[in-house]
Amino acid sequence: MSEKTRLRDNMYLQLFWTFFKLGLFTIGGGMAMIPLMQGIIVDKKKWMTEEEIVDCIAVSQGLPGVIAINMATYIGHQKKGVGGAVAATIGVILPSLVIIIAVVELLRGIGDNRYVNGALTGIKAAATGLIAYSAYKVGVQVLKGPFQWVLAAAAFGAIILLDVNAVWVILAGIALGLIYEHFVQKKAGKAGDER
Questions:
Q1: Counted domains in the chain
Q2: How crowded is residue 180: how many other Cβ atoms within 10 Å of its Cβ?
Q3: Shortest CA distance to 54 belongs to which of 69, 44, 41, 73?
Q4: Are the C-beta atoms of 19 and 72 separated by less than 8 Å?
Q5: Cα distance between residue 133 and residue 139, in whole Å
Q6: Angstrom distance (rounded) from CA 98 to CA 103
Q7: Span 53-104, pLDDT tens digits
Q8: Whether residues 37 and 131 fall in one domain
Q9: Fewer CB in a 10 Å sphere around the end CB: N or C, the chain?
Q10: Which helix (H) or strand (E) holds 55?
Q11: Which domain holds residue 158?
Q12: What is the pLDDT of residue 14?
């Protein structure tokens, strides 16, 4: 077996390199990385199905920390256990760590420059667009019925209009989902008994 084939077949190296590239070339972090991750993990690498990546997003969003790091850890663990989780996590974190140290050092000298401020304004606007696209793409995949749409709208309203902490919104979503599923199952059981 050639060295190139052995490296290609090393899943730990593949996980590290895939997430390293994602971390290196994705501007906007977290939510902005989701569409790119979906494209690579589901479409290109075929490491997960659409359903599995949606579950990964839901779990990663519900946990503390940055969603991109949580997703990398989750996907790495799904592929190769704890070692895979470590490889993917280090891969996605390393570019940001190195770049942010370099940027902070650079901005110390030119932070008040109007061109730098203009570039940062453009980057923030582009990242916001990526996050909106990510929310749309996940929403289309996940929101399949009226209950999900109403719950999503209520969650959005609670966070935006009432300034409710996202943790409480997630916990309320879990509780309401459990209650809803209980009644759906109960209704299905009654329908089965009537036959």
A1: 2
A2: 14
A3: 41
A4: yes
A5: 10
A6: 9
A7: 888 988 888 888 888 899 999 999 999 999 999 999 999 999 989 988 988 8
A8: yes
A9: C
A10: helix 50-62
A11: 143-195
A12: 93
